[in-house]
Amino acid sequence: MKLKHKIFGGVVWNSIGLIIDNGLHLIVKLILARLLLPEEFGIIGFAIVFTGMIRVLSDMGMSAALIQRKDEDLKPIDYDTAFWAGIIWGLVLATIITFVVSPIAASFFNEPLLKTIIPVLAITFLLKPLTKIHIVNITRDMDFKRIVLPQNISRITAAIIAIIMALMGFGVWSLVFQRVLTNLFLAVIYSYVSDWRPKMRFSLISFRKIFSFGVYTTGTGVFNYLAGNIDYLLIGKMLGAQQLGIYSLAYNLTYVVRGQIMGVINKVLYPVYSKIQDDAGTIKRYYFKVIKYNCIVIYPMMVGLILLAKPLVLMGLGERWSEAVIPIQLMAAAGLVHLLTSSNTILLRGIGKPRLEMIMSIIKTLCVTVPLIVLGVIYYGINGAAAGLLAAKIVIFFINNYTLKKVAHINFLEILDNAGSLFAITITIIISSLFINDYLILTALFGIYLLIHFRVSNQDIKQIILLFKNRKSK
Which end of the chain is more exposed for a tag (fewer CB within 10 A), N or C? Predict the structure, then answer.
């Protein structure tokens, strides 16, 4: 099958999974927000801040290294080595989390319940290695149907159980078991849908080759995690569980949704960049397509949240979540900026430059994101954290542009040429909304925006439909 048809098939299946995941995610969040208190969302947020950093280390970058390898350089023993290394490393991390991280987290946030919650969440570190190599093997074949369906089944089943637990009065434990059960179901299902089976063998030579690439992607993940969670850490410590619960809801409704949609194309394009890493012209063409298609899909969602956040929160969740309105609007605005260079890290990794990816991540995290968010939280609480995030994305946009120009000869004007009209329309509508307070007028303005947005995107949408028809006929 031609590469573009494989790409399209991957995007279609990941999109189906995304629609189900996000629909499910939104429904479950709304139900649990009705059943649980902001403080309970805050407690699970405490646990995630501390376990998340360890989770970044759990894979050691081995999955990325295996996917990036050229076909002629990859041997069966590489898979086995990565699998057993992951099992051993997962046991080590689960032990550290249970006996070291949990008491530190409980003391840091002054929340004794974390001593019990975090060890339960540590079970996921034992389950994750059981799925990683299966996913790598399927991803290299670009058979994303076998990735998406198990994920959907696992998440739907775990979500139903979480809602039942919340109705029965289990409180924060419904959120804890939702995460554990999702990983348990994934491990079971992938063992059936994947053809690959581990063998009892291990190669130090293979491990060194994999780890020499993976160490950089792991380093990138650590600093990206720090950039993405410094706000949680500061808000939880300085403002408490209730404010963190409100902030985490805003984050989930904007950043997580946007990130998952971006992940649809990034998951597909990473193995593609790896396959065509020596063809600069093709890489550049695909990169521009990624930006444009991301903007076509995500911009309407973010604009809708900016314009209608207040009525959506008040009518959907109730008055107790009203403080989430401004953070939602600011994070949605940050997402608009981030989309313009959203796939630069995947590009750098795909063409075999993980070291540069890590260096840029360190600079953006320590010199831009962390300082701006720290200042925001100190002076303006959760609103300041969201504002700091927006300011950081604006600065990072120009840093990414500089990197892309040096590495892939992609310049600022080319990016604007691909997404500039969509971005300009979006900014115009948002500025206009600043002078409007009536919900009905804002809803009408959003409707006008959608008409203009999809009118401008008409040719690209037609191309997607044509590609679908061609792929179906073949």
Answer: C
